[in-house]
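quick one before i forget lol
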Amino acid sequence: MMEQSLFEQMGGKYERQGDYLLPCLTLPAEEEQPVGIWGQRHGRFLKEHHRIMYYSLLTDGKLNSYLADVDRQAEEMLSRLVTQMAEQEGITETLKAQDQMAWVRQMNNIRSRATEIVYHDLIFA
């Protein structure tokens, strides 16, 4: 009988496929959490630019929970930034009642700037 490999000594098993013995590898079970657009974009960024971190999280079974957490942080950051910027620039419900188009223009501008900040500080960092 052949001596066991280190893989077998650590509890690993091989499966015969044709003339080859292939290791039976499985990823650890991970709780599925919904990942929104922010988490998906960050995941794509990691996969393209930080492959070691991406595959480390994937093989440890932590990728989904990590991306779901980044998604939650991004949503909270965006909401907080929009609220703060609107207060600083005096965008109020009174303006909304008086001139809806001006309010929409200013809020779209604020949301766009806040989105860029979230991308720069969290998603593509």
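fyi The mean pLDDT is 90.
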